Every structure is written in structure tokens, then in C-alpha cells.
Amino acid sequence: MRYNTSSSRRFTAAHKAIVTAPISGDWDMTEVDGDEELQDLCEHVKTLELELQQLQQRLDGQSQRSTPFRTSTAPVSSVITTLTTAQSMADDDLPIPKEWNLTIVNGHLRLETGINTLSDLMQYGLFDPTSSSRIPYLSPFGSNSTVHFELKHDSMISQALFILRKHGIFNNHSSLHNPNNFRQTHPSQWGHRHQSPIHYQHDLDHPLALPSTPFSPIPSSSTPPSDSSSCCSDSAPPIQLSATTNHCPESIVDQLVQQYFLCHNPTMPLLHEATFMTHYTKQPGMTDPTRSGTTTTATTATSSPSSASTFYSTSTTPASPTSTASTSTTNGFISPHNPVTLAICCFMSVSYCSHIPFTSHQKREYGEYFYVACREQIDDLFDDPSPLRQLEVLMSINFLYKFMLLTLQFKDARKLATLGFLIANGLSKQAALQTFSIEEKELASRHKILASMTFGAMEFLCVKRLDDITPKKVPLTPLPGESAMTVSVLHLYQYLFDLILHHDCVVIMQQIQRVIIGEVGQVTLELMVRFEQTCLDWWRNLPKKWRYCEHPYDTSAKHAIEQCDYDQALMAHNNLLAMTLGVYTNLLYPQTTTNQVVDMIQKRAMMMTLNCCELIIVVADRLKVVSNFCGYACDYALRVCDCLQNLFIHSKKTSDKSTLARILKYIERCYSDLNCDILADHRVPSEMSLVSSPSNTVYSETPVIYTNYPLPAHALVFDVISSSAKNIGHELPEIPSP
């Protein structure tokens, strides 16, 4: 509350007679209105007026005593004398510390002592943190239980970040990428090239149109596409999409869109299928409902007519020599699709969807094509003030991150993350003004959460920003036409956000981030207890359909996991384990080990790290069996392997041999999974490894080694994994080429 002391003095001068008049005779307020509380209020007003007058006198006195600091003509001895006098006067004005009576009722602290004056309020409110009279914080753990943690050796994640920072991947001085602007850096060696500048129209009679057959599970091949293959040849197209045939990217848009809504959107509902598909079929040549299964889905779904007609833009303008459409890597080819469609195709081209049998070269070529086509459209929409166009840009950006990270384009990813974060905040204001339909408002909320999380992650990775950039909790509302599974997933995400955004989780994760980037993190025993209790309470409060065991961290839960047939329940458990693992694995190395509290935290961290790793592996195996959605892919192996190696090194130093065999068993399991996930054509030779090279080596052309591979991030991951395996005496087995 802000008090206007000048108006208070005027009130006192003008109405002093009224306030101080005896309550009797004609002024007997009890007789006037029959309200006895009014007299108490008047007395309270008088008390507050006196308090305000005293406060004003203190402020005036402090202002007068600070005059020597504003005039430099006073001698030093005079200033010292003034300071001494001011200090003594201030000490005289300090109120006597008050005794506060506190009681604990149902676990809540309750103040029994009344606050009757402004001085009481200031003392209780802790307005002066340096005051000796403030109420001390009550904690059964005391005030000296803070423990400092740091990394004692490089983890796989820290090694990867070191390489990326060393070679300028996060800034403008990258030896891997040196983009002055987007259009100058494309085309690249991976861009798909049309033989002539044509305008492709979606037509059933077009020679590039593929029939509506599902993707065939053909084994991957590491053979690069032939330079003689032409997407614009007159030969008849194949009847199915083969992993060994090079197709025109525009001819597979339908299949990529269809597969996205089958495998990914149900588990991560970033699009409203009915609205999107209704507009998608209105593009040129896409109105025939018999063209594909995707179009049939669109004709049977219900959607809002108002949003379907304005929500997604089209790219149907004729080509011109100065057009900014997707021409840089396509020899003048103009894509007729809107940026959201192109972004979906870019995402699906490099996804791990088991229904898309692309080779690594096809992933890069198709992904590059759709990425460039989408970027050149959304770059022209950044300045469009229309809220609908801004929402379209935000949605497109969120689908492009996967391709950018796999190709190590962190600098551009950070730019888009910043723009997406700003756009999302602007759209929140538009949603409050009721300018959006129900579908648009809900999608803006969903994409804002993703934009906030991505922005925070990119700032942390690129510039080590440790600010609290976390999304605010927003309700996730199911939209008309969304399936029962999607509704259930949204409900689960709401519970997950309750856990992730809990105060105790946010505070401890901020300290863990400091440890990850090489700084010192501070954790108290009390914070550890509160964090773990928060996680356990969250698990116990989950609906029964997602909670299949009572103790989520105990290895006895393995039997319940192996019997669980509900993928969403496994997903909930996996998220809880992953967050807990991220905390405890960074608490293995305190700066000092001579404290009993430190020993307690360290032992707890060892046990929780091993248990969480073991349970995550079991959950991942079960998800592969029970889930029919590629969106549930559990990318656990890299993180779990990193944590296990960290635990293995710690166990060797502490001579804890009882757990070494158990740790090595799971490390070998993770190595096997990672070895299978990384394609054979992304294996960096050991003699060219950047991780195993001396840290003081000056690199010139060596960093380009990663960009010689279709997916540079995979090459980097293999380099880090193989080097880490050698550090503990293991070798990754060779995988024969198909």
C-alpha cells in the first residue's frame, strides 16, 4: 500500500477537530448510526495518522542528514561527524524488537500477535532485510546446511557443449556455419534441385503424384542418392515410397502430413486436425476426397467454418523473377503449400517415425527442401501485423526446431526461438481481446508453452542464461473434434506442468543448470527433502489410470511396469523419472565431503541415480511394445548413458564395488541401443575425433568434419559416445553396412 503523507497532513489539519472531538452529545456516533465499530475505526485512523507523521519526520530527518553527500564542499572530518551523529540518531529511532506469538495449525504457521501499528507491519513484513529485529526463518535443518556441488569431470553433454562453443556454433564465428543471412547460405550441398523452374500443381494426372499407399517398411540404406536421378522426369512414379528412390519432395507432402496426424499429433496435439485438414484440401488440386486417406479424413471431420477459412494462408501467388518464395534451392520452383504444411513436412522428414523409411541422405535432402521453402515464406510474414498470420508463423517455427538442431544450426534456432517467444507473448494479448476463435486461442496457448520452453533452452545452451524463463501455467482445453486419447493426453500434460512449474522444482533446477555449465550449485538438505516430497505427492495425486505402482522410485516398480499396457501411464512415469534423474545425477560431487549432511545427500543421489536409470530403461522397453504412436519414442539412451558413466566413475573412486557390475550392465545396454540408433554412415573415425583431441589443439578445417555428414548432430553424438566409452575401457562394435 502506498501512503500519500502530504495529503495525510492536510487531512489532519482540516479535520483535527472532528477526529479528536469527544464522542459525546451531538457527536455521539453510537447514537447517530448505532454502529459501535465506527468508534474503533476512528481511533484506528488517529493511530495511523500519528504513525504517518512519525514516518514523515523520519524521512525528513534522513533527507537532511544526507545533505553532506550531495555537497562536496564539506570537509572530511565534518562528514564523518555527521555520519556518526546520523547513526546514533538512527539507532535511537529503531523500535524495540517485538515478540511474535506463532502457532502451527494443520502444518501452517499462524501469527497470533496482532499488528496494530505501521511499525509492527514494517517489522513483520521484513522491509529491511539487514535489520536485526526481523523474524528468523524457521527450519528444522538450521541455516548452515547449504552444500555446494560442481562437476568433477566432463559428462557427454558438457563435452558436446564445449565442442559447439569452442567452434562458434552458438555465435557468428562458426567454422561449421558462417551465415551472413539466410538466403546466402542456401542452397547447400543437400538441397533438392528441380531440373527446371516449374509450378507444380496437385493433380491426379501429374506424373509426380503418388498413390495413397502407406509407407512401406523398407530397410534403410546409407547409399547417397544418385546425381542423375531427376524428380521431373517423365517416367512413371513408383507405386510406393521406397527408401532407395529419390522422389520430388512435393510428391510426398500428402503422405508426410497423413503420417504426422497418425503418429505424432495424437500425443503432442499442436494442431487441430479438423481445422487444418479442411483448409488443406482447399489448396489447388486437393479437393478430391479420394486422393488419399488424409483427404478422406478431412472431409469427415468437423471444424469451425470461420477459422477454417482464414486460419492457414496459401502460397498460390504466381512466380516472378523477384519472388521471395522458395526458389533458392529449387531452381525457381514455387511450392503451393502454406508454411505450416511445409514445416510439418520438414519435421517428419527428419523424424524417427518408423513408418518413414528414409535414408540419412533422404532425411537431409527432403528436410532441407521443406525447411528452405518454409523459412522463405515465414521470413516474409514476420512483419505482417495480422494475428492469424503471426499465429501461423509461431506454429511453423515450432515445427522447424528438430531439423535445425540435427543440422547444428543453433544460431538460427536461437533467432527463431526469440522471435517465436515474442510472437507468442503478443498473441496472448490478442487472445485476451477476443480476436481469436476458440480453436485459434487454444492453439496459441499450446504453442506459447512450447515457445517459452524452447526459448529458455536456447538461451541456456547458447549464452548460459540462467534467468527463470519458464512458461506460466495455462489451462489446456480440448477442442471440438479431438479424440478421447488427445483429451486424455492434454489432461496428463496439465498434471506434468503442475510438477515442472512447482516452486520447489523450479528452484532446484536453476541450481542444477549452474552445475551443468560448470558453475557451482547450492542445494540445501531442506530443498532436497521438499523436492522429493513434492514429486512423491504429485505421483500419489495422479488419477489411478496413470498410477500403476505406489513407489515410483523403487526397483520393485519394474514388475508393475512390465504388466502395464497403458502408454500414457508409462509416459507419466517416464517424465517423473527423467526430471528426478536430471537432479540427482548432478549432486554426486560436492565440494567437501566432511559434513554429515553432505554424506547424506551424496548417498541418496547415488541410489536415486541408479534406480531412475534402471526404471527408465524398463519403461522405454515397455513403451516399444504397447505404444502404436511414434510420438511416444523415448529418447532415453543418451541421457541415461551419460548419467550411468558419471555414476560409474564416482563408484570407482569411492571403492563402491557392489554396484559396479550393475552399472556396467546398464551402460553396455545403452551403448547397444545408441549404436543401433546412429546410422553407420555417421561414424566419425577415431583419428578425426574432436572429443579425444588435445584441448589445446588449434583447429582450422577440422570442425567441418561434422558437416560432411547428412545429420551433423548424429556425427557429434557418435564422436562423444565413442570417446566416452573408451574412457571407461569399452569399444562400440562396428555395424556392418546393409
Automatic annotation (TrEMBL):
Keyword terms, alphabetized: Coiled coil
Superkingdom classification of source: Eukaryota
Region annotated Disordered, chain positions: 175-196, 209-235, 282-330
Compositional bias annotation for Low complexity: 211-235, 287-330
Feature: compositional bias, Polar residues: 175-188
Coiled coil start-end: 38-65
Name of protein: Transcription factor domain-containing protein
Source species of the chain: Absidia glauca (Pin mould)
Gene (UniProt): ABSGL_10238.1 scaffold 11814
